[in-house]
Design a protein that fits this description.
Layout lengths: L23 E6 L2 E11 L12 E7 L2 H14 L1
Antiparallel strand pairs: 1-2, 2-3
Length: 78
């Protein structure tokens, strides 16, 4: 079985520059670049087994373009 390879369109990380302090996600919608950063919350000492492995990821717009897009989507879906 051949080894799995990453798609060629994925760009390798530049090892000469430090990594970004926040994980980022980028989307493109109708030619508009939408960049978000995310945070992950983990319960450190849960007292209940049901939340032992619960993680909550929240995404936030990095600039005005994705913020406007999200506000518009919220109005349409309200």
């Amino acid at each position: 079985m051949p080894a799995a390879r990453a798609p060629s369109r994925w760009r390798p990380r530049d090892l000469d520059s430090p990594p970004a302090p926040l994980p980022t996600t980028e989307f493109s919608h109708r030619g508009v670049a939408l960049s978000f950063f995310s945070t992950i919350t983990t319960f450190g000492t849960p007292r209940d087994i049901t939340i032992d492995e619960l993680h909550i990821e929240s995404c936030f717009p990095m600039d005005e373009a994705p913020a406007q897009f999200c506000r518009g989507a919220a109005r349409v879906n309200a």
